[in-house]
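tool=predict chain=A
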Amino acid sequence: PGGSSGRRVRPASLLPLLPPPPGIFRAPSGERGTMRKLKHHEQKLLKKVNFYDWKTTNNVKENKVLRIFHIKDREDYTKYNKLARRIEQLVAALRKMKPDDADRIKMTQILLDKLYSMGLIRSKQSLEDVVSIKTSHFCIRRLSTVVVKNKFCPNIGEAVKFIEGGHFRIGPDICSNPALHVTRDMEDHITWATGSKLKRVIKEFNDELDDFDLLGN
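tool=predict ok
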């Protein structure tokens, strides 16, 4: 009222409620006059973000598995989860085929042999064991879990530390990766690395140290 230009002016009280123009960054409340235009690389990054399918990291079950098996890389869990789903989909596809179909029989046998050699199923009799494969089955076959199962270490946390320290070997090769998948054949060849101080300490404790070990081997 009283203006001569005839141009309508937005009340100042409504300005915070109005959305910013596209490509404009709104500063936190209380910091007035600091809005700026998004930089080129910031706009490109935002284009790649899918806000409708945001990857959640607050998964109770996932965090529990990561904690139990001392998995440091969350991507390992994601890979195991994808593999378990792929196997489930493959079994569903095989079951849609006729029981006497030659391709179904052949593919079923190949799948059973592979999963059995990986240590993911207990027998090669039928697809029933395959259906029950979960993400945790892959975690159980990690090197850090297998050395605990074979009573080299009291718990998985200690196993991870000793493996990363180079105290274990599979056959002639030292392995320092706790996430290594251990097959049934590999499991029989897991032992202490040559010259491992832990091996010597354990043998001394069990009174199993011989003359060869006393030489520093």
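The CA atoms of residues 97 and 104 lie 7 Å apart. Strands lie at 24-25, 36-37, 168-170, 173-174, 190-192.
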